[in-house]
Design brief:
- This protein is α+β, with helices and mostly antiparallel strands and 485 residues long.
- It has a single domain, classed as Alpha-Beta Complex (Amidase signature (AS) enzymes).
- The protein contains 16 helices and 17 strands.
- The strands form five sheets. Strands 8-10-9-16-17-13-11-12 form an eight-stranded mixed sheet, sandwiched between helices. A three-stranded mixed sheet has the order 1-3-2.
- A hairpin with a 2-residue loop joins β6 and β7.
- The protein starts with a helix and ends in a 26-residue tail after the last helix.
């Protein structure tokens, strides 16, 4: 094994510890990541925007600085990072996966990127995304990102490039964001850990509506300890985000050390809403029952999520109309038809529909809060179906159930978005075909530490983190991008 390969296989926690002790340098890590990108990313296509020479220059300047005498728990000490191509990095392109913005260069870094830079991160690349949003990462600018566990399959989305980079070893940590499951779904599909934190836990960029509670920024990592490290690096208040919370009194990295089992949890295969692939449900049920061996009471129990699918569809459409509605008049032909549909749905909403959705969301939140009066956590599958072929834009059925829209199959994550609670996807097993499956761990409002602790307790039961990073499996196809079929 070469020196670069040894560095690539370090966990982020180990890499940062060695950086802090000055046993390795940021420049060595940039070089190691660059070599791994050269070796594998041509098949995966996780990191299409690269600025490696700039990262090397930044690393050299970073190495000349005096390190902080008392670094915070989230101090990354010069660890290379990838930003999602929805986030602005000063001087680099932000395309959103759209030909409309293919050549747009960000004049400044957004709040989330700036937070990670201030926490000692060095950006060297941007990860691929679907066009504007979605849970299969393909776009007309850079093409499709493929799943390292099987290059014929989707990596999920919209943080699919980030998840695939982690799984294939081209990054130690990566940024993600989540509206309907964009942190959790690719984490499940790529066998890594992704967390949608509590609303306000992580500062967001100015390109989003300031008071929107649906879209969050969050961490992605190969294991739970690394995820906690990145959340500590991210959870720094920023004055330009009105929803942002103070940093926690106890670092998240402390929460995952020697965690105690929760007292009582509920498990449900489908949140009482729709169909789930039987193999996925069985894997997740068996994973949840592992907590029983630790002394946790595991009940088949779930809050009442009735009406939540329609409620999310309405509020998502309203957000899309606000964010992208003005593009329809001039750029309609250059926008993915699914996104056009979602924007138009938002523009056509009536006042009664919006008021009803807001009332339903409030009622749902209180039903969930009442559930958490009795239960510490709620567990369910992250995604209703295992990874599907990358050429397929999205699933159109689950078993015998026909789906009516391009996001129906994502219901297990997007209804959880409505309640603003922390939710994490933990890899908990493999399908018979060898594809990862994620268990979604959901906690009460602001209980991010409890969610992380439960994930840390369970992680060792499954052994998937120990298999990462993996060399990409299979051969990438030669066909066109999904959506053309």
């Amino acid at each position: 094994m070469t020196a670069h390969e040894e560095l690539v296989r370090l966990s982020a926690t180990e890499a940062v510890a060695r950086l802090r002790r000055r046993e390795i340098t940021p420049l060595e890590l940039v070089d190691a990541a660059a070599a791994r990108i050269e070796a594998v990313d041509g098949r995966v296509n996780a990191l299409p925007i690269r600025f490696i020479e700039q990262a090397r220059d930044t690393a050299r300047r970073f190495m000349a600085r005096t390190p902080p005498q008392d670094p915070s728990a989230g101090w990354l000490a010069g660890l290379p990072l990838a930003a999602k191509d929805f986030n602005d990095v000063e001087g680099q392109r932000t395309t959103f996966g759209s030909p409309i913005f293919a050549d747009a260069v960000a004049p400044t870094s957004d709040h989330t990127v700036a937070t990670l830079e201030a926490s000692g991160g060095i950006f060297m690349a941007k990860s691929n995304v679907p066009e504007f949003a979605g849970s299969n990462t393909f776009n007309p600018v850079f093409g499709a990102t493929r799943n390292p566990w099987n290059l014929a399959m989707t990596a999920g989305g919209s943080s699919g490039g980030a998840a695939a980079a982690l799984a294939s070893g081209t990054q130690w940590l990566a940024m993600g964001s989540d509206l309907g499951g964009s942190l959790r779904i690719p984490a499940s599909y790529c066998g890594i850990v992704g967390m949608r934190p509590s609303v306000g836990r992580v500062p967001r960029g100015s390109g989003l509506p300031a008071f929107d509670p649906l879209w969050t920024e969050g961490p992605m990592a190969r294991n739970v300890a690394d995820l906690a490290l990145m959340l500590d690096a991210l959870a720094v208040p920023h004055p330009h985000d009105p929803l942002v919370m103070p940093a926690p009194d106890v670092p998240f990295t402390a929460a995952v050390k020697g965690p105690r089992p929760p007292r009582r949890v509920g498990f449900t295969p489908n949140l009482g809403l729709s169909s789930v692939d039987p193999e996925v449900a069985d894997i997740c049920r068996a994973a949840a029952m592992r907590l029983g061996a630790a002394g946790t009471a595991v009940d088949e129990a779930c809050p009442d999520f009735s009406g939540s699918i329609e409620t999310f569809q309405t509020l998502r459409a309203l957000l899309f109309a606000g964010l992208r509605g003005e593009l329809l008049a001039t750029e309609r032909e250059r926008i993915n038809p699914s996104i056009v549909w979602n924007i138009e749905k938002g523009l056509e909403l009536g006042v009664d529909e919006i008021i009803r959705a807001e009332r339903e969301r409030t009622a749902l939140y209180h039903r969930v809060a009442t559930f958490f009066d009795r239960y510490d956590l709620l567990l369910c599958p992250t995604v209703a179906v295992p990874p599907f072929p990358v050429e397929q834009p999205y699933p159109t059925r689950i078993g015998n159930e026909e789906l009516s829209s391009y996001i129906d199959w994502m219901f297990l994550t997007f209804v959880v978005t409505l309640i603003g609670c922390p939710a994490l996807s933990l890899p908990c097993g493999l399908t018979r075909s060898g594809m990862p499956v994620g268990l979604q761990i959901i906690g009460p409002s602001h209980a991010d530490a409890a969610v992380l602790a439960a994930a840390a307790l369970l992680e060792g039961e499954f052994g998937i983190a120990d298999r990462l990073p993996i060399d990409p499996i299979g051969v990438a196809g030669e066909g066109g991008a999904p959506g053309s079929v």
